[in-house]
Amino acid sequence: MEVRILQKSELLPALHLVWEVFVEDVAPSYTPEGVGEFQKFIKYDSIRASVERGEIIFFGAFEGADLCGTMAVKSMGHICLFYVKKDCQGKGIGRMLFSAVYHFCARQLKVTRITVNAAPEAVVKYQHMGMRQTDGEQNVNGMRFVPMELYVNPADLPQQQKKSRTGWIAGGIAAAVLGIVLIAAGGTVLIRNLYKISQQMTDRIEDNTPQWDDDDPMNPDSPLWDERDTYGDNDGDDQIGPEVSGGSGVASIPAYLADDLAYEIEEDYYTYTDDEKQSMLISFNVQYPVLKGLDQAVEDKINAQIRECAMLTVDEIYNNPSGEFKEKILETASPILASVVNYKVCYANGQFISIVFEDMGAKGSQEDAYQHLRTLNIGLKDGRVYTVKDIVNLDDGFVEEWLEIMRDEAGDVNFLAELDEEDMIKTLGGESIDGNYVANFFVDKDGIEIGYDLNYVSGDPADLKFVWVTAPFTFEQITPYEKDKEFWKFFD
User: Fold this and answer.
1) Structure confidence at residue 459 (pLDDT)
2) Is the dihedral of CA 480, 481, 483, 488 positive or negative?
3) Which domains can be identified in the chain, with CATH numbers?
């Protein structure tokens, strides 16, 4: 299957595909007025002109020479016309198109937010790909839709530093591109590129978006941009992945979700923005998975652990701050308390689940901007949480091989040179050394990755500007170092 941008000569076949699927699957839920509006919108001449002006980009999924599906995106990151042929649905084509468009939006359009007006019946599928509902169902000119959005992972945006320090392999992200940019304006602190910020603040951020007339059919606020996702894709991989364009950070992890799961993985979230305080910004947007269908007692235990892990920063800086942290905030001129957490279920079978959380925000001020990786690995029979020291023997042989892989992933033979072997064994065992080296691991489709969330103090000469780096092992490679045999049976 090939996914690529369509040529002008391929636009007409793509629009024919759109109309055929629309008539069968979508038109019955429209009023006659809505069908007429949609038909006017997809007229070839107007679409072609928009493509030529660069206002809209069409992607197509091809099996050989056959066009199986198409997806269009507006230049400011608004998705539209997402259709897959009936006989091609359920084969992962929709997910591949979405992945291609996501990475195009991040790397080429350089937008920080992707939006869509989703058909009500498609909301759940968009949630599986990381999008979230921003308003209730709406009906405009006979067309029903639910507004949704997805904020682009800063790890997927183009880097602003020298190539020698990019370090995207294994999710290593340079701290200089945390995606949080703060600017002073009229004494009020504004934030750009946070996933979720106060609407009050957003209204005051400089807006470089092109202006459109209200009656312009290319206006992204027009209901003509109504998204009608009928691709029927539900193959199990519920996150944006590297299938088409590669990827970086959490998005690049190759997930595995077993087909025969006896439980469901749903999504929940915690959001809070304080719109009243003028002297500080408080904004949280935490997403996390919820398991449904396990033994109730174990299910409650597991879901409590998942939420606790996702909410770690919110609890630290807002719900249960230390006295020292409170004093720091009182002494800060324009405090910022922000945490944005997204996640990926990178492995799930009937006995075990592995979850990766990516947390970014600010713990007090501009200088306290951060990005962390957290992982949670749980046995589903008893809710046991596993750590690195539980699953591998932290001996000289393991550390030697692990360090070699870590340096290869970082692309620098001096990576972690400040640690001796004893320090590495201690930190992998849970002693973080002033919080600098937080050990974690996760399991994915290809095996297991073990590494650090790195938190160097500013100016530390050992800091190579990585946020986190993990060393990948296949299940065969890790065999000589296995410790808990019951744990490794999860993957037989």
Assistant:
1) 83
2) negative
3) 2-152 (3.40.630.30), 175-180+262-491 (3.30.565.40)
